[in-house]
Design brief:
Pfam families: HTH_18 (PF12833). The protein is of the alpha+beta class and about 325 residues long. The chain has ten helices and twelve strands. Helix 5 crosses helix 7. About 30% of the residues are buried.
Length: about 325
């Protein structure tokens, strides 16, 4: 698994309450782990940047886990009980039935909290963001997976995606051990990605008469992005508004401006942030909120990564 993933490969089975901070589940990026559990948990990297996990845990006391999650996609099927956490302050709840998917376009703080007496029986996949982006570059049919990494945090329940649920059931109840178990985990985990990509695939776009050049199309898209910089439209919505296919719009914008629309919006926001900071009329946190960052820490990280120094260093 990606080294930035806070979850380590491990396997334990507790027949009486044991402290989770001693179970070897998390690396040093987990800031706080409080609580104990009874039951089993296992996590196994099935190929670089892809980790399968499952568990059946009961929590005799309140559970609290504070960690930082990297840009990634996590697909979870709850088989019994429930799970919940807050990511960047937003509560996400996982319940039995349909699979759930969590996509993060950047590193975000997460807080798992479960009440005493609760239970979580589930299976899932954690996939590194860079790995999904590379797959999408190689094969456009996998772009729906990469789009889960767009626009901050994406969390949804996958209604009508029974194939993914059945695959997780097979993974959880695998009869194999040793090398066969590892092969089974890898093959079925990749099958989950294939089924999810198929489920997320949009309906074929209507053919467009070639009335506009790539340059005209890119300029129209940029105009609309500049006009809605605080709340820009998603790529699919923008493509529909302009009456073109999403792939066509992405290709046109990248060809004309040499960067993706997401990178362009981020760059323009940060350039605007620098202008506002130099005016000295607002605090850093106020500017972060104005530019759409729910967490000032994420704004500070993005600003330093782009300009080479934190926003507080602007004079």
């Amino acid at each position: 698994m990606d080294r930035r993933n806070p979850y380590l490969d491990t396997h334990f089975c507790f027949d009486h309450p044991e402290a989770l901070d001693q179970a070897g589940v998390f690396d040093d990026s987990a800031r706080q782990v409080m609580g104990s559990a009874i039951g089993h948990y296992r996590a196994q990297t099935v190929r670089p940047h892809v980790q399968y996990f499952d568990c059946d845990l009961q929590f005799p006391e309140p559970l609290r886990i504070h960690k930082v999650l990297p840009d990634s996609v996590c697909i979870v099927q709850v088989l019994g009980g429930q799970w919940q956490h807050r990511v960047d302050g937003r509560l996400n709840q996982y319940t039995p039935g349909a699979p759930h998917v969590l996509g993060l376009s950047e590193s975000m703080e997460a807080m798992d909290q479960m009440p005493a007496g609760s239970r979580a029986r589930m299976a899932g996949l954690r996939i590194g963001g860079d790995y999904l982006r590379e797959l999408a570059e190689e094969d456009p049919s996998l772009k729906p997976l990469a789009r889960l990494l767009d626009d901050g945090m994406h969390f949804s329940e996958l209604h009508g995606c029974r194939a993914v649920g059945r695959l997780f059931e097979r993974l959880y109840h695998s009869p194999y051990q040793g090398a066969l178990e590892r092969l089974n985990q890898e093959s079925l985990s990749l099958a989950v990605l294939v089924e999810l990509a198929t489920h997320l695939a949009p309906q074929p776009a209507k053919p467009m008469a070639p009335l506009r050049s790539h340059s005209d199309l890119a300029h129209e898209a940029r105009f609309k992005l500049d006009a809605n910089l605080m709340n820009p439209p998603g790529t699919l919505a923008l493509a529909r508004e302009l009456g073109v296919g999403e792939t066509t719009l992405r290709r046109a914008f990248s060809r004309v401006y040499g960067q993706s629309m997401l990178d362009y919006v981020r760059q323009q926001r940060l350039e605007l942030a620098r202008t506002l900071l130099r005016q000295r009329k607002w605090h850093v946190a106020q500017i972060a909120h104005r530019l759409g960052y729910a967490n000032p820490a994420n704004f500070n990280h993005a600003y330093k990564a782009y300009f080479g120094h934190p926003p507080g260093a602007e004079s």
